[in-house]
C-alpha cells in the first residue's frame, strides 16, 4: 500500500505543528521520520492514523482518500514508545486480541498467534504476562499484536525509545529483518539518526513542522 501525504497542515492554537507537509511512501517500504523533539513527527503519524483532524491537506492510502475516514476503517497497526499491552492478558492473549474482536475462528486465531510468536522469536513465552517480560520482549509482543490483523500500514512511534542502548541496537537489526520478511508499508518515528539510518529504506528529516530533506540513508549522510 502506498501512502501519499499532500500538503498537510495542523495548528495547535497559534503553534504550527505541521506546515504543508507532503511526502510519499512506496508500497512495502520502511520510512523513517527523523527530527528533533517537537518537530511534528508524532503529529504527522497521528494524522496518518486518523487520530488528528487536519486544518488542510489530505492523506491518500493506496489510492483512496482517507482524510475523513474513521480510524477503525483504516486498518492501521500502531506501536507506541510505551507499550500498551494489556497487563492482565498473556502474550498469546495480547496477540490474539485484535483477531478475536474481528471474529476470526478459534482455529484461525490459534494458528495466527503461533505464527506470530515464531516471527517475534518468543515461542516459549506465550503464556507469560507482560510483567514477566523484558522491555524489548514487550515491544516485540506489541509489534506482533499490531501485525496480527494484517494492517495495510504499520506506524511505529519511537518504539524502542524507552529501551536501553544495547537492546535498542538489537531490536533495530531485528526490525530490519522482520520488515524484509513482512514487507508492510511502515513509518518509523525516531529522533536518533543512527537508528533511522539502520532501519529505514528512506529517511524524511523534519524540523519545525516542515520536511527538510528526503532520501535514502546513503543520500542523506556520508557513511564513514
Ligand atoms: P515530535 O513527535 O517531533 O516530538 P510532536 O508532533 O509530538 O513532535 O509535537 C509537535 C509540537 O506540537 C510540540 O511542540 C507539541 O508540544 C505540540 N503538540 C502536539 N500535540 C499537541 C496538542 N494536542 N495540543 C497542543 N500542542 C500539541
Ligand atoms: P511524543 O513523546 O510522542 O512526542 P508527547 O509527550 O509530545 O509525545 O505528547 C503526548 C500526547 O500529548 C500526544 O497525544 C500529544 O498530542 C499531546 N500533547 C503534546 N504536547 C501537547 C501540548 N502542548 N498540549 C496538549 N497536548 C499535547
Q: Secondary-structure blueprint of this entry?
A:
Elements: E1 3-12, E2 15-25, E3 30-34, H1 41-49, E4 56-61, E5 64-65, E6 76-79, H2 91-101, H3 106-119, H4 135-148, E7 153-157, H5 165-182, E8 185-190, H6 193-199, E9 202-207, E10 210-215, H7 217-220
Parallel strand pairs: 3-8, 3-9, 6-7, 7-8
Antiparallel strand pairs: 1-2, 1-4, 4-5, 9-10
Helix pairs in contact: 2-3, 2-4, 3-4
Describe the model.
It comes from Hydrococcus rivularis NIES-593. One of its GO terms (molecular function) is ABC-type quaternary ammonium compound transporting activity. It is a peripheral membrane protein. Residues 3-224 form the ABC transporter domain. The chain has 224 residues and is α/β, with parallel strands linked by helices. The chain is built from seven helices and ten strands. It has helices at residues 41-49, 91-101, 106-119, 135-148, 165-182, 193-199, 217-220, and strands at residues 3-12, 15-25, 30-34, 56-61, 64-65, 76-79, 153-157, 185-190, 202-207, 210-215. A six-stranded mixed sheet has the order 6-7-8-3-9-10, with helices on both faces. The protein has a four-stranded antiparallel sheet with strand order 2-1-4-5, covered by helices on one side. Strand 4 and strand 5 form a beta hairpin. Helix 2 packs parallel to helix 4 (135-148). The longest helix has 18 residues, at 165-182. The two termini are 34 Å apart. The model has no long low-confidence stretch (mean pLDDT 92). Bound molecules: adenosine-5'-diphosphate (2 copies). The site of one adenosine-5'-diphosphate has 2 residues, from loops.
Amino acid at each position: 500500500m502506498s501512502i501519499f501525504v499532500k500538503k498537510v497542515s495542523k495548528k495547535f492554537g497559534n503553534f504550527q505543528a505541521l506546515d504543508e507537509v507532503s511526502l510519499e511512501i512506496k508500497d512495502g517500504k520502511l520510512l523513517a521520520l527523523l527530527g528533533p523533539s517537537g518537530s511534528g513527527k508524532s503529529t504527522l503519524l497521528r494524522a496518518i492514523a486518523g487520530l488528528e483532524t487536519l486544518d488542510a491537506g489530505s492523506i491518500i492510502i493506496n489510492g483512496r482518500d482517507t482524510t475523513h475516514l474513521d480510524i477503525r476503517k483504516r486498518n492501521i497497526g500502531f506501536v507506541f514508545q510505551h507499550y500498551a499491552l494489556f497487563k492482565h492478558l498473556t502474550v498469546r492473549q495480547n496477540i490474539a486480541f485484535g483477531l478475536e474482536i474481528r471474529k476470526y475462528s478459534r482455529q484461525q486465531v490459534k494458528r495466527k498467534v503461533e505464527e506470530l510468536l515464531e516471527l517475534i522469536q518468543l515461542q516459549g513465552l506465550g503464556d507469560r504476562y507482560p510483567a514477566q517480560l523484558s522491555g524489548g520482549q514487550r515491544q516485540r509482543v506489541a509489534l506482533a499484536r499490531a501485525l496480527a490483523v494484517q494492517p495495510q500500514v504499520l506506524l511505529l512511534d519511537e518504539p524502542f525509545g524507552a529501551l536501553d542502548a544495547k537492546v535498542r541496537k538489537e531490536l533495530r537489526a531485528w526490525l530490519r529483518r522482520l520488515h524484509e520478511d513482512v514487507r508492510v508499508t511502515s513509518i518509523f518515528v525516531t529522533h536518533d539518526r543512527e537508528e533511522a539510518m539502520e532501519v529505514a529504506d528512506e529517511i524524511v528529516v523534519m524540523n519545525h513542522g516542515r520536511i527538510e530533506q528526503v532520501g535514502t540513508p546513503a543520500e542523506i549522510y556520508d557513511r564513514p
